[in-house]
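Q: Sequence in, structure out?
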Amino acid sequence: MIRKVRVSPRITRRWRSAFLTTAIVGLTAVSFRPAAQSQTPGAAADILILNGRVYAGAGAFHEAVAIQGSTILQVGRSKDLEHLRGPSTSVIDARGRAVVPGLNDSHVHFLGGGLGLQDVDLAGLMTLQHVQQKIGAFAKAKPDAPWVRGHGWLYSPFPGGLPTREQLDKVVPDRPAVMMCYDGHSVWVNSKALQLAGITKDTPNPINGIVVKDPTTGEPTGVSPCGPPKCRAANRPA
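A: Exactly. Output:
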């Protein structure tokens, strides 16, 4: 019996890029039967990668891998997989290079994402009223929390594209509040947070950041477009 493993068609297309230094298979820690134990009479591979170091999981390495459609047909020695070569097979000589599982990340920040589960999620809210309602309800449900934290707000609900401290003061007037933008590049705080941080109209812009100030009064508006590390630090107050 042949052990077949499904892989993404998108990953399969990547195998056809002959310029790749390292071939990538869309698998994670999968164990295969050696070619000597897995014969495929009559089958022809769409892609055949030979003369490589194919990692098949559990510390096992092989020379070659055969792919048909979105299925791994077989791994083993290059000479043992030659029977899978057909007239339309695309053959790639890995020339000793690594062929490893593809680890496809959806851009998840595990630590920040995990900690963010404790905060108010503002993702997808399209009006200022809805943003304020959700923050207010969250703050009311956590009366003992020293800070009110949140993330995910969009620019579009706010007149002019940026929020203000007054809009946050309206729903969290009693303690500091800090809200991270959906893109991780802007932070929105209320007046209590500004006071605690010592940010005033005389505060200069930080490195790689801006303290947005009212053009008339010069007072900080409560929003700061800044580099992600600085914003993350601001959103995880001690």
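Residues 1-40 have pLDDT under 50 and may be disordered.
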